[in-house]
Amino acid sequence: MPNFWDDRFAEPGYKYGTPPNAFLREQAARLSDASQVLVPGDGEGRNGVWLAGQGHQVTAVDCSEVGLAKARALAAERGNAVAARLHTRLADLADWAPAPESFDALVLVFCHLPSALRRVAHPRLAEGLKPGGWLILEAFHPTQLGRSSGGPKDVDMLYTLVDLRADFAGRLEEVVALEGEVLLDEGPGHQGAGKVTRYVGRRLGCQGPGLSQTMRPAPV
Q1: Residue 111 near residue 40 (C-beta atoms within 8 A)
Q2: Per-residue confidence in pLDDT tens, the chain, 220 aa
Q3: What is the pTM of this model?
Q4: Is residue 17 left, alpha or beta, with left meaning phi > 0 and alpha meaning psi from -120 to 50?
Q5: Number of Cβ atoms within 10 Å of the Cβ of 130
Q6: Which residues of 55-83 are buried (b: 16+ CB within 10 A; e: fewer)?
Q7: DSSP 10
C-alpha cells in the first residue's frame, strides 16, 4: 500500500530542514540531563537528532521507514555518540503506545492526526510520561488553513487549545498555552508566517505550580 510520507521523504534533501523546531529549542531547557525523550511523528529526524545531540536518549517513532532512515543518516553525520543516542521505531500511532511512565519527555512537533485518532492517541502518549515528565507540543491552528506556509489542508487535523486541554485533562498540568502567529523557517515545507498552537504540560504528580501564558496577536 503506498505510503504518503515515504513518497514525501524520498524527495531529495530534508523537507522540513535539519535544524530543530524553534519552540522545541526554546523549551528544551526544561528537560533534565540525559532524559528519556519520546518523539512521535519525527519524520526525517531533525528534532530527535538535535535532542540526541543535547545528550538525551531519544526514541523517534514514525510511520515512514524512509523518514527514519534519513533520521539515522542525519544522526550519523553528527557523530557516533549522537547516533548511539537515537533509537528509531517504525509504528503507527493508531495502534502503538509507549509503556506507562517510561519517558521523561514527550515532543510532538507538527504531528497532526485526524481528530478521532488524536483524542485517543494524545492521552495514550501522555500516559507514557513519568510523573513530572514534560510535554512540548507545536501544531498548526485551524486559522492556518488556506496559508501556503505549511500544514494539513484538512481543518480536522488542526489543533486548538480547547482540543489539547480536553485531550490531556486529568493527566497534565498546563504550563504554557499559546495561540498566534509566528514566522516559520523550517526547510522548504514550512516557510513564512504561520498560525500555530503551542502547549507545554507537565505530568501530574510533580511538585510546584505551572504558569499559563497567552500569546499576543502579531502586529499587523
Answers
A1: yes
A2: 457 776 677 777 788 889 999 999 999 999 999 999 999 999 999 999 999 999 999 999 999 999 999 999 999 999 999 999 999 999 999 999 999 999 999 999 999 999 999 999 999 999 999 999 999 999 999 999 999 999 999 999 999 999 999 999 999 999 999 999 999 999 889 999 999 999 999 998 854 433 344 443 333 2
A3: 0.91
A4: left
A5: 17
A6: ebbbbbbbbbebbbbbbbebbeebeeebb
A7: T
Give the largest CA-CA distance in the chain.
48
Distances (CA, A) of 166 to 20, 105, 109, 123, 126: 28, 20, 18, 9, 12
- What is the spatial distance between Cα 138 and Cα 28, in angstroms, rounded to a whole number? 13
Is the sign of the CA dihedral 152, 50, 193, 187 positive or negative? negative
- The CA distance from 184 to 205, in Å, is 34
